[in-house]
Amino acid sequence: MMDNIDKNANKDNDLAKIISSLGNERKIPPLDKWTPKTITSFDIVINDNGEWHHDGVKIARQSLVDLFASVLWADVDGEQKRHFLKTPTDKYEITVIDTPLFINTVDKVTKNGDEWIVFGTTNGDNIVLDDKPLYFKTVVRDDVADDRLYIDTRFNLTARIGRNVFYHLIELGELSDEQGQTVLTLQSGGKTHRIIAPNFN
Question: What is the pTM for the complete model shown?
């Protein structure tokens, strides 16, 4: 019984250490200006469905997940990415099964006479469709292939766009058939984005 109490206390202390190291930073701190030297493995896993787990237990407090998401950072080594929670003094390496950010809303916003497509993540971030393309990638989970839509965003991170959001994108754009391929054309900020869409079952 005492072992379980000590384990939970250590878990809370680890989480509190990261939170206290952040101070009163803005929602997305200037991680690119921080140069921590210490890298520590940290038992946080972002599951394939976007749930965050610490030491095998789901983190139920959304405010805590949102705080962690604000300090997400990725280092790129070839085609591999290492994900971290980054603070001014430490980088805590975590495990990400697919992507660390998940998009669940999309809207069109007018600014300075231009219409922009803006995505919203489950953590309250906004991602504007500008120079970075949308792209599909086939992911195999439990021997089942799934075509997923992604966009790259801040600090080498990638966000996955939910299926329902993709269907909303179809309403915002224009579908065409080009040599047997379905192409979705979107306009955002005066730029044209073309996505070759897979055939969903």
Answer: 0.82
pLDDT tens for 93-117 read: 999 999 999 999 999 988 777 888 9
Mean pLDDT, rounded, for 29-42 = 93
Of 180, 188, 189, whose CA–CA distance to 197 is shortest? Answer: 180
Distance between the two ends of the chain, CA-based, in angstroms?
50
Find residue 93's DSSP bridge partners: 41, 84
> Which of the four pLDDT bands, split at 50, 70 and 90, describes residue 169?
very high
Give 67's DSSP letter.
Answer: H
What sign for the dihedral angle of Cα 172, 176, 181, 187? Answer: negative
Q: Which residues are 105's β-sheet partners?
A: 120
Q: What are the structure tokens assigned to 5, written together?
A: 């109490």
DSSP state string for 27-57: SS--GGG----EEEEEEEEE-TTS-EEETTE
The secondary structure of 86-98 as a DSSP string is E-SSEEEEEEESS
What is the rounded CA–CA span in Å between residue 156 and residue 110? 27
Bridge partners for 45 per DSSP: 53, 95
Contact 76, 68 (CB under 8 A): no
